[in-house]
Specification:
The chain is of the alpha+beta class. The chain is built from four helices and nine strands, in the order E-E-H-E-H-H-E-E-E-E-E-H-E. It has a four-stranded antiparallel sheet with strand order 4-8-1-9. Helix 2 packs antiparallel against helix 3.
């Protein structure tokens, strides 16, 4: 097992859309409900500090491996996809050091059922984080993934896949990031 530590920095806005159960008050309008609860879409710790769940970066890398379909030298047509899906772990939440009360709102007109192109649309409010920087620790469990392959996939995942709501992989432009510094394998 190898440990890769990457210093990542946002390259665009970042927005979270965590699910939270419908807790509408009696006679509360949909607009009032959104105004009251939109910060519930954030992932926060017990002190109200926003964090990025560890699975976000792991899934971002897995999607990048599938997107790139880079072939493993000497293994015919085999790609790195299954190695990134099963052989990478990001086990610690990534704290952004931003309190939930300092996050701004973004109200947009979106499909009511979340499916692009469907009929009914409604206003929803999502949290926007204008910039972030963090140190992310990855556990590389699969020896097939070399340092160079990992670093390439991480850089590409920030450019083409992204994290959060409205990311590039889902036809958006939020959630892009760059690798500022990369610490060697430990």
């Amino acid at each position: 097992m190898k440990i890769a530590i990457a210093h990542l920095k946002s390259d665009s806005l970042y927005s979270q859309s965590r699910y939270y159960p419908n807790q509408k008050l009696d006679k509360e309008s949909a607009a009032d409900y959104e105004k009251r609860t939109w910060r519930e879409r954030l992932h926060v710790d017990k002190d109200g500090i926003v964090f990025i769940p560890p699975t976000v970066f792991k899934n971002c890398l897995s999607e990048a491996a599938k997107f790139l379909s880079m072939q493993i030298q000497g293994k015919g047509k085999a790609t790195y996809t299954k190695h990134f899906e099963a052989g990478i772990l990001c086990s610690e939440p990534v704290s952004l050091g931003i309190h939930k009360d300092d996050v701004i709102a973004d109200t947009v007109f979106v499909p009511a059922d979340g499916v692009r192109g469907s009929g009914k649309r409604v206003e929803k409010t999502f949290p926007i984080i204008q910039s972030w920087a963090a140190k992310v620790k990855f556990l590389v469990l699969d020896d097939t993934i070399t340092k160079e392959v990992f670093e390439y996939h991480l850089k590409q995942s920030g450019r083409f896949i992204g994290i959060g709501r409205f990311r590039p992989r889902n036809n958006g432009h939020y959630g892009r990031f760059v690798v500022e510094k990369y610490r060697d394998w430990e």
